[in-house]
Amino acid sequence: MYLCLETATRNCSVALIKDNVLVDLFERTETEFVHAEALHQMMKDLLDRNNLKPSDLSGIAVGIGPGSYTGLRIGVTAAKGLAYALNIGLVTITTGELLVNSAGNYSEGTPVALIDARRNDAYVYSNGSWSFATLNEEWRANLGIEEAIFVGDAAFKVIDFKWKEDQVKAISPSAQHFIGLLPNSSAKFEEHMAQIEPFYMKEFVPTESKKNTLNG
């Protein structure tokens, strides 16, 4: 039994998957990120309502991004801590791969994962490669895909310039998208797993507050 976490976007998502079949799913999507206060309680509630204990888990899986810096840090840290404490395997998969996997039921078209990066920008994953792009007509023309299936929380950004053959699916990254991607055999926590970090793509540059905290 795998406990799967996906925290790259505002959809805070946890799932239980056994033999690559979904057992249960718990998700919260808010206008603001709720991961810090919600994720650990969601994991506990999911286990409780399935009468499971942490020791019943054989592995942890987590989406490593790209996406929200804070959301990813919370999810990856939780996954590493659980895997280490339980001495079970840790599976990491990029959020783009999870989204492309979610589009597997559509027989025609090439899945293109679009993860919101603010304004008209997005992290783009298709045909096994990543890029960071400003989404516009020129970008679509140079995409090199005749018929695209756009998925992800930034897919709505292509509505005004998508090609006639394109499809836009309102699919956000979710822990259930690990189905079909998890190894059947369980493993133990290994030393290298402690070094796993989120896949940010862009360097995090903090900004200095313009407010004088001493003088109000």
Biggest sheet: strand arrangement: 3-2-1-4-5
Average pLDDT confidence is 91
Radius of gyration: 18 Å
Report the uncertain regions: 209-216
Strand composition percent: 25-35%
Question: CATH fold name of the largest domain, please?
Answer: Nucleotidyltransferase, domain 5
Can you describe this structure?
21% of the residues lie in helices and 26% in strands. The chain has a five-stranded mixed beta sheet. Strands 8-7-6-9-10 form a five-stranded mixed beta sheet, covered by helices on one side. The chain has helices at residues 35-49, 69-86, 95-102, 137-141, and strands spanning 2-6, 11-18, 21-29, 59-63, 89-93, 110-116, 121-126, 129-134, 148-151, 167-168. A hairpin with a 4-residue loop joins strand 1 and strand 2 (11-18). It is α/β, with parallel strands linked by helices and 216 residues long. The protein starts with a strand and ends in a 48-residue tail after the last strand.
